[in-house]
Design a protein that fits this description.
By secondary structure, the chain is an alpha+beta fold. The protein contains 6 helices and 5 strands. Strands 1-2-3-4-5 form a 5-stranded mixed sheet. Strand 2 and strand 3 form a beta hairpin. The radius of gyration is 16 Å and the shape is globular. It starts with about 25 loop residues before the first helix and ends in a 14-residue tail after the last helix. Bound molecules: acetyl coenzyme *A. The site of acetyl coenzyme *A has 22 residues, from strand 4, helix 5 and helix 6. Acetyl coenzyme *A binds next to strand 4, helix 5 and helix 6.
């Protein structure tokens, strides 16, 4: 699909998923000046990757590498649900998070939601945006029919996730290539 993204003009805007997966309650509970969206094709220009950089190294991207990844996710948008909370004053992304929906044989073809890549821009931290991101992703987990939603996090973030309704369970393992 062709995109005409330039800093001067935005001629086309594509959303990752339908608005029915956006929690009305989260939208209503956001402070004035913030708004919940699905990831959109022009969020490259709205600083989406800058926000992610508070989490980890993002690497150098061009508009083409952005579009390639966005279109991959859009093609699999029963699996990838990335939300943004926008700062409407600046039209920049203030916070983001993703839930991946895994299809399993166990639990009678059950679905598991995996929360990933939670990031609140440092200038917006401490304003309840992190908690709203998690609430928005839990809503998607319920709306898609997941029987559980899980995540991995650093020990220092455990109190934050406990405030979001999660409880520690078992251990995380990792193998880096
Ligand atoms: N430790 C303890 N409590 C915390 C922490 C923390 N690290 N962060 C927030 N809280 C508390 C707040 O004090 C607040 O408590 P209250 O309701 O009693 O007032 C509550 O949690 C909600 O806080 P928010 O304002 O919603 O938090 P914020 O918007 O700052 O987002 C986040 C928190 C996401 C951890 C943010 O600081 C951030 O982006 N950090 C850097 C990236 C990161 O670590 N992301 C998580 C990676 S794990 C993953 O992606 C699955």
């Amino acid at each position: 699909m062709l995109h005409f993204n330039t800093t001067e003009s935005i001629l086309f805007e594509d959303s990752l998923f339908e608005d029915k997966y956006l929690s009305p309650e989260v939208q209503a509970n956001l402070h004035e000046g913030y708004r919940l969206f699905p990831l959109r094709s022009n969020d490259f220009e709205r600083g989406y990757l800058d926000v992610l950089s508070v989490l980890t190294e993002v690497g150098a991207h061009s508009i083409d590498t952005w579009n390639a990844q966005f279109q991959f996710m859009k093609k699999h948008n029963d699996t990838y649900f990335t939300i943004t909370i926008m700062d409407e004053l600046t039209n920049r992304v203030a916070a983001t998070g993703t839930i991946l929906i895994e299809h399993k044989f166990v639990h009678k073809n059950g679905l598991v939601g995996h929360i990933e890549d939670i990031a609140v821009d440092s200038s917006h931290q401490g304003k309840k945006l992190g908690i709203r991101v998690i609430e928005a992703l839990k809503f998607i987990g319920q709306a898609t029919g997941c029987y559980k939603v899980i995540l991995d996090c650093a020990s220092k973030n455990i109190p934050f996730y406990e405030k979001c309704g999660f409880a520690p369970k078992e251990s995380q393992m990792a193998w880096y290539i």
